[in-house]
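> forwarded from #structure-qc
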C-alpha cells in the first residue's frame, strides 16, 4: 500500500501503533463488567421458576439487547469507541477509516454473541430436562443432575472458546484475532504517530541514505521508478510497519 499525501482531495493515511494485548484485555474486561450491570439487576429483580418461559425470554432479550447496543451500536455511533476503550485511550478502526456496522456485528458475533448463545442454549436445555423430570427429591430422577451436567458442559465450551481465541491471538505474528484479520480491523492507540508531539518523519531514515544522492543531480530521478520497484518499496513499507507493530489507516 502506498502512502498518499494529505489534502482535501485525497485520502489521508496516517500511521497508528497497535495496542498491546494486555491493554486490550483490561479494556474488554471493563466493557464486560459495565454491560453486565443491567442484566444482573434484572436477574436479581425477576425471580424465574423453571416453568416461567415468558420471564426467561424477557431476560434473554434484555441481555441480548444490552450486548448489541454496547458492543455494536455504540461503537458504530462513536467511531469504534466503548467506555473501556476510552479509558485506555484506544479505538477499533478499519484500515479504510472507521469500522462499518456490519464489520462490528460480525466481529462481536464471534467474540460475544456465539458464546452467549452457547450459554443460553445450555440453560434452555437444562430447563426442559427439569420440566420433563418427575417431582421427586431424587436428583437422578427429577432431572437435576443431567441439567447441571448440561450447564457445566456449556460453561466449559464457553471458557474454551475464549481460551482458544486468546491463544490464537497470542501466537499470531501480529497478535491479531482471525476475525479481525478477515474484516481488516485493528485495535490501535487513539492518536496517530504523525499527530504526536516531537514527531520527526525522517528519524527512521538512515543518514547515509539521506545524503547518498541528490534527487535532481544524481541517480535518483523522480518519476522514473518501475512498477517492480514500486512494489518492492510497498513491501518494505508494510514490513517496516509490521516489525514496529504499526498500521497505516485511512484517516480522511
Amino acid at each position: 500500500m502506498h502512502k498518499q499525501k494529505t489534502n482535501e482531495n485525497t485520502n489521508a493515511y496516517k500511521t497508528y501503533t497497535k495496542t498491546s494485548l494486555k491493554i486490550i484485555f483490561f479494556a474488554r474486561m471493563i466493557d464486560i463488567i459495565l454491560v453486565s450491570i443491567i442484566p444482573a439487576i434484572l436477574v436479581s429483580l425477576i425471580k424465574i421458576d423453571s416453568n416461567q418461559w415468558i420471564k426467561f425470554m424477557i431476560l434473554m432479550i434484555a441481555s441480548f439487547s444490552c450486548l448489541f447496543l454496547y458492543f455494536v451500536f455504540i461503537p458504530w455511533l462513536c467511531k469504534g469507541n466503548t467506555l473501556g476503550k476510552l479509558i485506555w485511550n484506544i479505538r477499533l478502526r478499519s484500515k479504510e477509516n472507521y469500522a462499518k456496522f456490519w464489520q462490528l456485528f460480525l466481529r462481536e458475533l464471534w467474540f460475544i454473541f456465539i458464546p452467549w448463545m452457547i450459554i443460553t442454549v445450555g440453560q434452555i436445555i437444562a430447563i426442559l430436562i427439569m420440566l420433563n423430570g418427575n417431582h421427586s427429591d431424587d436428583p437422578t430422577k427429577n432431572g437435576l443432575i443431567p441439567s447441571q451436567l448440561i450447564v457445566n458442559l456449556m460453561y466449559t465450551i464457553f471458557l474454551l472458546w475464549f481460551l482458544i481465541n486468546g491463544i490464537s491471538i497470542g501466537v499470531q505474528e501480529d497478535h491479531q484475532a482471525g476475525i479481525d484479520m478477515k474484516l481488516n480491523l485493528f485495535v490501535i492507540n487513539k492518536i496517530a504517530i504523525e499527530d504526536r508531539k516531537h514527531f520527526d518523519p525522517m528519524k527512521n531514515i538512515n543518514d547515509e541514505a539521506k545524503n547518498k544522492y541528490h534527487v535532481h543531480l544524481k541517480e535518483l530521478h523522480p518519476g522514473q521508478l518501475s512498477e517492480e520497484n514500486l512494489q518492492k518499496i510497498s513491501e518494505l513499507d508494510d514490513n517496516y510497519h509490521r516489525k514496529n507493530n504499526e498500521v497505516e489507516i485511512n484517516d480522511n
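QC bot note: Residues 13-189 form one domain. The chain has nine helices and five strands.
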